[in-house]
Every structure is written in C-alpha cells, then in structure tokens.
Please model this.
Amino acid sequence: MSDAARTEIDLHEDAILPANNPEITPFAELSRLMVIGIDSNQENHLLWTAQTAPNGPWSGTWDTISTTPYIVLGTGCTLDGRVAMAAQTKSSPLAVHYIDEAPDQSDNVERWNAPVDLGMPDGLAGFVQLEMIRDADGRIEIFGIDGATGDIWWIFQNPPKIVDKTEQVTPPGSTTPITVHVQVAEPPDTPWSVWQQLAGAAASRITVTNNADGRILLVAMGQEPQSRSVYVNTQKMPVALAPAGWSGWTRIDDAMSGGAGSLPTAVLDRQGAVNIFMIGNLSQVVQIRQQPPGGDTWSNWVRPGMTGGMLFDVTSAIDGDGHISLMAVGEQAQLFYKQQTASLTQQWSGWEQVGKVEDFGTSMMDYNADGRLTYFQGMSKTNSLKIVSQFVIDSTSWDAGWTMLADNGIFTFGIVRDLTPPVTS
Model:
C-alpha cells in the first residue's frame, strides 16, 4: 500500500544492482498490488482484483467488496497494513462509507468488514473526489471536495483517550501492596470525528501526501478553467484535530510555473522533502520542492528536462530504492519515463519513450514487492484499465506490451499495496 510502512533494505544514493546475479535485488517487501474499483457494469458495486502473490501475476478476476451502489472512491490502508477505502453512495441517502479488510484471512479468502456510515456534511449535495491517507499517528484521515462549491471537507479517526487508573501493585522484595496511579490509552468514545471544513480554497481536485514526519500535506488545484491556481496546506502538528491545526492555504504557482495543466502529483524524496510536479508552462513538466525538507517554504519552480512535444499528464512515485520516478503522457499518446538519479544534487535521467497509451484517463504508479514500478492507465472512453511494469528494479526498460486488468466498466479506481497477501506454498 502506498502509505504503508516500508520494510525494504535501504540503499545509498549511488547504489546499483549486483552485476553478476540479476535475480538478487536490494529490496524486499511482503506485499502485493491490489486495485479497488467501482464497476458501472455491476450496478456501481465496489470490486477488487490483485496479484495472486507478491510479484505474481494478476488474478484475472474481480470480486465484490460491497453491493451498495457507489460513485466516488478513495483508497488507503490501516496502520496494521489492511486495505481500506472510503466511498460515497450513488443515491439517497448520500453518505460516505468506510470499509476495511477483516483481520481474519486465515483460509486465504479475502474478507471485508461491514461498511461504517460516516454521513455527510450538512447540506452537501455530494463529493466529486475522496482521498484517504494516514496521519503521523497512523490514524486514517479522509478528505472530500464539494462538487458545487469546491470546499474541502475533512474527517478522521479520533485518537485514543487517556484514562487515569488506580492499581494495587506489590513492589519487588515487599509483601505490602501499594497504590499507584497510571495513565492508559483506551479507544475513543466516538471512533470518528465530525466533518469539518478546511476553508479558504475552492478546489477542483486535490492531492494528498505526507511530510517526512508524517504530517499530512494537501495540494489543491483551483477551479478556474483557463489558468488553474495551486495551493498547499499542511498540518502544523502531528495530531491536528481542528482546522486551526493547519497552516492555511498558500498559493505556490507563479509566472514561472504557469497554472496547473494537470492534477499536481506529490512525492517525498530521499532527503525528506516533498516534491510537487505538474504540467505547467509550455505544456511541460514543472517541479517545486520543499526548502528546507519538512518546512513551510518552497524552492523556485524548475524544469526536470523537456520533451519534444506537448504533455498532458504526469504521475510520480518512488521506486524500490527511494528515487523519484515520473511517467508522462504526450500529445501523440506517447508514454515517457524519467528517473531522478540523485535527489541531493537534483540529477535526472533523460525523458525516454517507453510505450504508447490507447486513451487518456486516470493514471497511477506504485512499486511491487521487489521494488519494480507498475504504471496503471485508465481509459476514459471504455472505462478500461491496463498496466505496464519495469523489467527489474531501477530499470529504464519496461514491458513491451500492456496487461489488461479490465476491458470496460471500471470508471474510478485506486491502487494499494496489500501487506496481508495470501499465503503461498
């Protein structure tokens, strides 16, 4: 899962693969990639498909999570590595439902807990986007955009309550008990907060990410149709329970960047700085970076190299050794790849065309259990979903052909890494 704790071997900036044994990789994580989607062919039910095992082939089947009709989806994972999602119902009564994996997968049957009704903000006619992420304490937080106003709403799992207890204990070497007062953590009285508004930005889309210390950072794209502004807002403290715990919206686009020509994408680099990428001026990728890492100030906008034509979309991810990787789609449906080779000195490989896409749509990228990246391309004309993967970790070679995960029906989806994969013999 994209925001799960990583368990791989750490590499130095100049690390390379072992030259004499290509089967050895310096990265390992027990996880499998999973797709959660809403299928218009099955009455907007929530479905899932996944690799049959870490690094394994895809199952080729889609199984049902919930038969309630949904329309908007956000995905993530719990602190203990279980897949989780938030989805808004399609029809009245409108509500956001939270669903996560059941802990018991003992017989390799995927089970899901019953939906938890989180309601909706009063008077809201519906969200157009939901995003889910874990905070610095590992609690799930959910963000939604009001389709009518662009207002951003926020709800989260409440932190545990601290309770004073009195206990009788017998000190070592004594037979006489004494009374001690201790503080213990217990589940909160109410599992979830109420919906709260993060006022000050009218957004068309948002991107969510974490600072290096776990605090959540939001990137919002404005609603102006011609030149979309870009804003950031970050939690000021690890446990933020009210809008006052946020820094407030700061506009970061300028004449150098131009407005957002694509949804901004955000990722942490190896120095702990958040990097934001988007299609900006000249229809090329532009980049801005936290300066210093984890701080509230940002660098100038820069260009990590240009291609020979217009770009329409860019997606970022970290690869298995923590380097930033970009995938961009060009005006002639070209699929371009670029890798950051050193974050400290901001060195990049050149843009390389690694394929072509059949149609434009939602794109995402995440790493496999062995560190190889997989790129997911949704196609809006057919609501289909295809993938292409790196040859080996850190490779600039990608599959020569696409693997079809769904040939129609999946109009929205999310990618997670399942840290509770099935047991394989």
